[in-house]
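Hello,

Our lab assistant flagged a job as stuck in the queue for most of the afternoon. It eventually completed. Since we weren't sure the result was trustworthy after the delay, we are filing this so someone can double-check. Below is the sequence as submitted and the structure that was eventually returned. Let us know if re-running is recommended.
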Amino acid sequence: MNPTRIWSRGNKLVFLYSFIYAFALSLISYAHVGSPGVLVQKQAGKYRVLINVQPPDVVPGTAKVTVFVEQGQVKTIQARPVYFWTGDEGAPTHDQLNAVSSTQFTGDVWFMESGSTSVELQIDGPDGKATVVAPVMSVATAQRTMPAETGIILSILGLLLVVLMVTIIGASSADGTLQPGQSAPPVFRRKRIVGMSIGAVLLVLLLAGGRTWWDSWADEYQTDQLYRRLPVNSVVKPENGQLALTIQVDTTGFAQNRRWRRPLSFIVPDHGKLMHVFLVRTPGLDAFAHLHPDRRDTLRYESKLPALPGGRYLLYADVVYRSGYAETLTDTVEVPFVKLSAEQAAARTPTDADDSWLVTEPMGVKSNAIGKLHLDDDMVSCGKPSASARLDDGSTMVWTDKPSPILEVGKPYMLKFAVADEQGKAAKLEPYLGMSGHAAIVRSDGTVYIHLHPVGTYSMAAEESMVSRIADTARTVKLPDPKLFRDSIDAYVAKLRNLPEAEKNKLIMAAMPTMNHTMTVNNMVEFPYAFPRAGHYRIWIQVKRNGRVLTGVFDTQVKESLL
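-- returned structure --
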């Protein structure tokens, strides 16, 4: 029987889920999906800090900045936004954060421009001075609506002001011309009425003009300034006996709206890769792949697929532009069910040696609740109550310090994972793409996705771009020739791919000079993260051991804050 022709009730549920996911993914997908906050953990001089930046969803707006001092004695912390296109010369002065305690500082920072931005922190105290940069994407993702009660009150006050203005204009044109003690003749009544009429007409015209301007500005905000993800069309097709994924950028609308355009020739590598693609099969999130496609031209990326089972997959593709602007492109793609011979399966080769994948058990589902994902309050590993996950090489990954059975929304956590070999001893980890590990987190409905690193939730390439821009004294940025820039980047990425592992990691880490996050225990990796919404989450932790990428899978539940 051909599995592609089977349409059971389960297939219809999968289709329904996929439609809902596709709609949800179209809502917010800049710099990860549904997780706009930025966490940065940095060692700067004698200071170790954890920075939490919650950017505004309306620009201009204020970002909430909280700094937790984990090491060092801090007296003051000052913060300011620095925009890529105006640099240090066009940045405002620093504002001092408020000291909540000796280890916590908080304050608001105004973001007046959209685009690639950073929050620069100047730390001062008995342990010296230090500067830390936290890359942030400043984009408008929401449009505020006025509460009905407020609108009614303002309308009444506005009507009262109009009446008072008309009365004042009428009185000025008539009674205002009288001499002290002079009584008003009958003709002044006519002058008062004429003055009030003229004043009323002028005020109506003024209000109509103001309303037209406001509507025009609101339309421009909605059509031009509100963030729209870069659309892509993804497809999987057989190619030379192996399935191949093609991601094509859709440039429709670029000519009509300059704010929708992207500098596609100026995509820069992050961890040595131009694009990080994560595929997750729905609805059970039981199949996962982390791929690094080749760039065929400015708009098209291709990658051979590993041995993934057929079905509907969520696609998340991370890219970073030269300005430091990081973006996650989203789509859903159908992977066909195919049967391969043993020879064909053995002949499959990945596009990139750093590609990795895993097929495991789906998230836990209540037997009496069809289609409704459910997990107990405690952590589970691949649907089984446990705090550990068995890896493909026989070793074990352990989530070492889950703070409580229930995780809370918005609370910064340090997710720590350790790896033990078959004998239970600490297993030494190797660098994976220049870092001690990578993590991907996806909410069960696909509306939250993030690619995590041990230093935080931001892109290393974005940070390097902003740090270099702050050091540049030029007020404006002059971009190089697009074709020459693209070709030079492609040559650099190709060179990295062909290097031995040790040399490749050395070059990747050299491209991230601001990264200083060496683990004190060589079998452990940790990731700072604050879950943005309540729900069920699957976490993939990726490390490298004995030249092999290993992936551990954990599920957890997150609830609204108890405070």
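-- support follow-up --
The delay was a queue issue, not a problem with the job. The result is valid. The chain has seven helices and 30 strands. The helical segments are 9-25, 148-173, 187-225, 342-347, 460-471, 482-498, 501-510.
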